[in-house]
Specification:
The chain is of the alpha+beta class and 40 residues long. It has one helix and two strands.
């Protein structure tokens, strides 16, 4: 089982940016998206 520091649900503009910021700060991030990354 993998362990993550943060789970972000939704990879729209806000979710994607939050996930990338957390990665840059050293967090292990799970980004969960049902459709395309980037939103509409």
């Amino acid at each position: 089982m993998e362990h993550f520091d943060l789970a972000v649900v939704g990879a729209g503009l806000g979710g994607f940016n939050a996930a990338m910021q957390a990665v840059e700060l050293g967090a292990r991030v799970a980004l969960i998206e049902g459709n395309k990354v980037g939103g509409t």
